Amino acid sequence: MSTLLALETTDKNGSIAFFRDGEPVLARALPPKQRSAQTLAAEIRKLLDFCAISPREIDVVAVNTGPGSFTGLRVGVVTAKMFAYACGAKLVGVDTLLTIAVGIDATTGAVAIVSTAVDAQRGEVVAQTFSLSTDGLLPKALDAARRIPLSEWFEAAMQTGAVLASPVLARRAPQVPGGLSMVDERYWQPNASATGRIALERVRVGAFDDPWTMEPVYYRLAAAEERRQG
Fold it and tell me: What is the pTM assigned to this prediction?
């Protein structure tokens, strides 16, 4: 038996999921009105208790490493690293933009190309374009992730014919130009089930991360650090 715990805390609406033998068993959203730093450890315990498994029986812990919010990423990555170290589990870091793409139901073929993004603050996003597969394969990146103004994200999506998918749309949907499409609202957020699915592919090829060196991927300095650097 192989087991995997997946953590997704890059935005306000975090989630966790448990997999056994490559199959999803249970996924839960973190309490939406509380910070993940306050709830993550307790929710992990509840999830494992419900699945009747102890922390030391987890073989792999997967976590989104970014891009995403500074606090959310730190909480998720630190928790995953501590869990892996304390319980002897392997560690897998997962990209947030790919996670959003994986979470979209592509089996109908209704969405072929998607542009995912997360908020980079100050009117910018970190965005990347993916080609979706209808046969269960992971999405294929069509470009590199980049930090760009929101308006440029819209323009790039119009040029490629991509459909938009992002937590940013919860606030910015009214600004989306006519002619651009958005995926259904339920696919805007990254989720731990998608995190786990990506991690399982990495596990199959032995692509693990080092708990001592894995760090969040921010794409910009925190505001305080930017002020210090002038």
Answer: 0.94
